[in-house]
Amino acid sequence: MSITPFPATPPVPPERSAGADWTAGPPPPAAPPYMPPAGAAEAPRAAHEQMPPAGAYAPAGPYAGPPMGPGQPAWGTPQPVQSEGFLSKLFDLSFSSFVTPTIARIVFVCVIVLSCLAWLVFVIVAFMASIGMGLVVLLLGWIIPFLIILSTRMSIEFYLAVIKTAENTAHLVKPQP
Length: 177
What we know:
Layout: H1 86-90, H2 100-129, H3 131-140, H4 143-169
Helix pairs in contact: 2-3, 2-4
């Protein structure tokens, strides 16, 4: 008894053998179009499924849609963002706008610059004390500024995530009269 690695395949019928014209013969029958049962009324469509009459509006771009009313922009039309100035955000006593996203980059760049300058000052002072101490600070002194930069980045990301959450969920809270 011999064991074959693959199961035996059934023989190929002569009409399906190599060189035979597989496309010959009548095409398969087409499915009949759907016809509702006789006497059945078409179910009313939901408002979002109803199509406007032909020619009611012409889409003009990927976000275009029917106008919402007189003087209203079309669906998906980008609206201009009303941005407040830095000083108006800074002195907003109701705290309805956030200044942190505006100054986050500036703070992070300042921390990077100050950490690198502090490391260079420590390296210079260490070399003035002794060559051995200077080499140690040169090779290992970058670790503390790196950790300061890393912790600052993590803190800024945390604050920005909290602010973005507050901005994105502000519409869920009803304003207090």
